[in-house]
Amino acid sequence: MLNNLLLSKKNKYILCLTILLIPFSYGIKIILRLDEIKWVEPSGIIATLFLIYYLIVKKRFLHQHTNQIPSNNYDLILIFLLSFLIVLGLSILTNVITETTVSLYDYFRELMKIVLGVSLTYYAYINSFFRENRLIIYNLMFFNCVVQIAFSIFSLLAIKINIPLPGFLIDYLNDYFSRQIAWQFHLPRLAGTFYESPPFGLLMLSCFFLSIIMYKEVKSRSSVLFIILSFFGIVASFSEQILVSVISFILLYSLLGKNYSLAFKMVLIVILNLLIFFLLIPSMKNRITEVSTLGSSYGERLMHLNYALELFLQNTKNFLIGVGPGMYGQHASKVLPFPDTVAPQSIIGELIAETGILGLGFFSCLIGTMLVRVSHSKLLLFILASFFFGASFQATWKWPQSFFFFGFIMGYAKIQKQYETLSFLKIHKSKPS
Predict the structure, then answer these.
(1) CA 408 to CA 405: how far, in whole Å?
(2) What's the average model confidence in pLDDT over 404-408?
(3) Where would I find the H helices in 323-399?
(4) 71, 125, 357, 389: which could form a disulfide with 411 (CB 3.0–4.6 Å)?
(5) Is the Cβ–Cβ distance between 229 and 146 less than 8 Å?
């Protein structure tokens, strides 16, 4: 019954809508001049509504088949996730009592982002069990990749050759390309419908890894095109954390994941070193010299990390449960030259400042358990680790593409492990005793 629900046309339509809306994030508000509208990711809302219905159906099914359901089957990922959410709730409750100047909405906004993101993760997880749904995910992420790159290139051409566009769109593009320039090369950084290039790069990274995971299963001519286009999007974003993520993955998997010849590995190392030298080292050098300068992403990240540590060690409450989800900016704006909506720019800074040692501990256990769950496959292990690194140094890690990709890779890893176990059992069963 549950399988029929996930394979139904109704769910497939919902899955399509959810995936297509993933790139329509905060940047869309800016483009359409809807800055004042309170925004929640539409993909998370759609996934949450479907999951409520799914869980109701599942509860009825389990109630009717209680004798077929194993008891005490607790999952470590679920335990650590619930523990992390409990810490967030406790942090909100404590800070609401002690801090009276901030509205309840400001406290619950970030919590809702995480709850909706978790729903999106679980929705991707249960859909990735079925090949039909995996192919839908693959094809629509391919479509997202093409649309985002096409929109980026069209936007660039519109500015360069003065294509007639609505005034508000021209204003947005002029503003965007004036502030999103790639280091000393003075090249525009592509961003699609995103407000800046790093989250666009993160979407391209998720597309790139998805195309690699599904390559053997899809087996079509378009598979190579998907890999090339998504890799182009990664490079064209000129986002250091995304470039480091993909280079790290290629290096790790080539040296440790496959038994290639020594000559091939040496050539690959040379190529990657040249890529690092020409793309990353010039940027790193410039950023280090500007490390104390306001406006430098490296300098600002260090400022935020330093202040996050100060908040973390300020008192016992902050040390244990932090200042509350989304509340870093309220404190930082009083000391640093940033608005009260600013984020710590890194997941470590955000966790220690807003959730304390308890939140950091449970979140670390959660990520560690996820890595262990995919460790049967070096490919999936290196992909998950590299993607997490790329997501960790965004302005915020709570992007829908992150939540969706985490769910997909965990579901795919589970199915892959089940197939490997069944194949192992069949081989040994067929051997004469």
Answers:
(1) 5
(2) 94
(3) 328-332, 347-354, 356-373, 378-392
(4) 125
(5) yes
Residues in the chain: 433
Q: Six-digit token pair at 317?
A: 């409450």
Mean pLDDT score, 48-70: 71
- Whether the per-residue pLDDT at 288 is higher than 60: the answer is no
Q: Is 207 exposed, middle or buried (0-12, 13-18, 19+ CB in 10 A)?
A: buried
Contact 419, 413 (CB under 8 A): no
pLDDT band for position 70 (cuts 50, 70, 90):
very low
Q: DSSP string covering 283-305, please?
A: HHHHHHHTTTSTT-HHHHHHHHH
Residue type, 267: V
Give me the DSSP letters along 125-178: HHHTTSHHHHHHHHHHHHHHHHHHHHHHHHHHHHHHTT----HHHHHHHHHHHH
| CB contact at 8 A, 206 and 405 | yes
Strands 187-188 and 181-182, bridge-based pairing: antiparallel
Give one DSSP letter per residue of 195-247, joined into a string: SSHHHHHHHHHHHHHHHHHTHHHH-STHHHHHHHHHHHHHHHHT-HHHHHHHH
In the block, which residue shows the tokens 């989250």? 199
Contact 355, 91 (CB under 8 A): yes
39: left (phi over 0), alpha (psi -120 to 50) or beta: beta
Residue 182, classed as helix, strand or coil, is strand
**Residues 337, 181, 21: CA angle, nearest 5 degrees:** 85
- Cβ atoms of 373 and 414 within 8 Å: the answer is yes
Q: Which two tokens stand for residue 153?
A: 């290139």
pTM (two decimals)? 0.85
Q: For 329-357, how does the pLDDT look when each residue is reduced to its tens digit (9 = 90+)?
A: 888 888 887 777 788 888 888 899 888 99
Q: Give residue limits of the domains in the chain.
A: 74-129+290-433
Q: What are the respective helix, strand and coil percentages of the chain, to the nearest 5?
A: 75, 0, 25
Eight-state DSSP code of residue 254: I
Phi, psi of 188 (to 5 degrees): -70, 140
Residue 129: burial class (beta carbons within 10 Å; 0-12, 13-18, 19+): middle
